[in-house]
Specification:
heterodimer, A: Heat Shock Protein 90, 34% strand, B: alpha/beta, Rossmann fold, Arc Repressor Mutant, subunit A, 2 domains, 10 helices, 6 strands, elongated
Chain lengths: 87, 212
């Protein structure tokens, strides 16, 4: 799921990450993919529309009635959590 | 010169017994008795004993509470605690209050004389069984700290991270700031020498953190 939703190349390209960690978590009634990199991070509030491919990801998660959370601190990597309800 | 001993215990019969044991030794001398913690302070001031045999449980206050006063007034005095408690925790309390020795009342008849000589020479004395228990307790504690270096709070943060929660969610669940949650995470990674969430999840699974 992580691979389908998030282009690995996208993370590497933008963040200069050396490691990516993907954790799939089964929650009550949902499944979440927690994807983290150890790249340089960014300020999520300063992302321009359409930048970083985040809009595309949000759309794809939205199609599955899921939600996408992004946490990033400049200088210490980025965490993406895509949570999708199980039918 | 003999070692001068002050006997402090609220039971007169027990004091009399100790006095007999002490006075039977040529190098020891029972110079006085006190039945309360308060009286112990007065007697110590008047008699200036070398060693104070001090009961813990007394009617006015705990013997341990007056140890700092006794030592403050005469730092060269040695305090030998007489206790019914063989719990290592009490031994620690006694020593951190400033006592030099700790013996059990049940073994007082056989070891009080040796214990008085030890502390009078500036050494420490602990009842052997209690001492062994103290060492065992400290070893177990050290081992636990080595195996699980995380604090309770960090363990809780680790659990939530392994369950896939974001820093934001963790901060809301634990009523802490996002920044504090980030700091906890950084400390956990550092302590465990891990570098990614995937590794955190593996650690949490191995340690059974998720079963709590």
């Amino acid at each position: 799921m992580g691979a389908a939703l998030f282009h690995r190349g996208l993370i590497v390209k933008h963040s200069h990450a050396r490691n990516i960690s993907i954790v799939l978590v089964r929650k009550p009634g949902a499944v979440a993919a927690v994807i983290e990199d150890d790249g340089h991070g960014f300020d999520p509030s300063a992302v321009r529309e359409g930048g970083f491919g985040l809009v595309g990801m949000r759309e794809r998660v939205g199609l599955l009635d899921g939600r996408l959370q992004i946490e990033s601190i400049e200088g210490s990597g980025t965490t993406l959590v895509a949570e999708v309800p199980l039918a | 010169m003999s070692v001068r001993v002050l006997i402090v215990d609220d039971h007169a019969v027990f004091r009399a017994g100790l006095r007999l044991l002490i006075d039977a030794e040529p190098d020891l001398e029972a110079v006085g008795e006190a039945g309360t913690a308060r009286d112990a302070v007065f007697q110590a001031r008047a008699l200036k004993p070398d060693v104070i045999l001090l009961d813990v449980v007394m009617p006015d206050q705990s013997g341990l509470d007056v140890v700092p006063t006794l030592l403050h007034e005469r730092p060269e005095t040695k305090v030998l605690v007489l206790s019914m408690q063989d719990d290592p925790q009490y031994v620690r309390q006694a020593f951190s209050a400033g006592a030099s020795g700790y013996i059990l009342k049940e073994a007082a008849d056989t070891e009080v004389v040796a214990a008085i000589r030890e502390v009078a020479q500036g050494n420490s004395y602990v009842h052997p069984t209690v001492g062994a228990r103290l060492v065992a307790a400290e070893t177990a504690e050290a081992r636990r700290a080595e195996e699980d270096p995380l604090s309770d709070r960090e363990r809780e943060v680790l659990r939530l991270l392994a369950l896939g929660h974001t820093n934001q969610e963790i901060s809301a669940q634990l009523f802490i700031s996002v920044r504090t949650a980030e700091t906890h995470r950084a400390h956990i990674m550092q302590k465990l020498r891990l570098s990614s969430r995937a590794e955190l999840v593996r650690y949490a699974l191995e340690q059974g953190v998720l079963e709590q």
